[in-house]
Amino acid sequence: MNLHDEIAAVAYELFETRGCVHGHDLDDWLDAERIVLGRHAGQEIEEPEEEDISEETATVKVLEEKTDAEENEEPYYEGMS
Predict the structure, then answer these.
(1) Helix (H/G/I), strand (E/B), else coil: 10
(2) Single pTM value for the model
(3) Per-residue pLDDT tens over the stretch 16-43
């Protein structure tokens, strides 16, 4: 099992532990990363191929881009008198 698959399995276990409540996928994924990376501390970790972009990675990139765009927006009430 590669690192991505192991993280995905742990994230799914966390999802099930939470009672299969949706909306916490990023939290579950990040917690799973910490758990799995902690297990592998000091071991060589298999890196995914560059062209293999997971759905979770794509989601994080979209969220980061959205956050960056929101930071550059001016509030609608600025300049209103």
Answers:
(1) helix
(2) 0.51
(3) 998 999 999 999 999 999 999 998 887 7
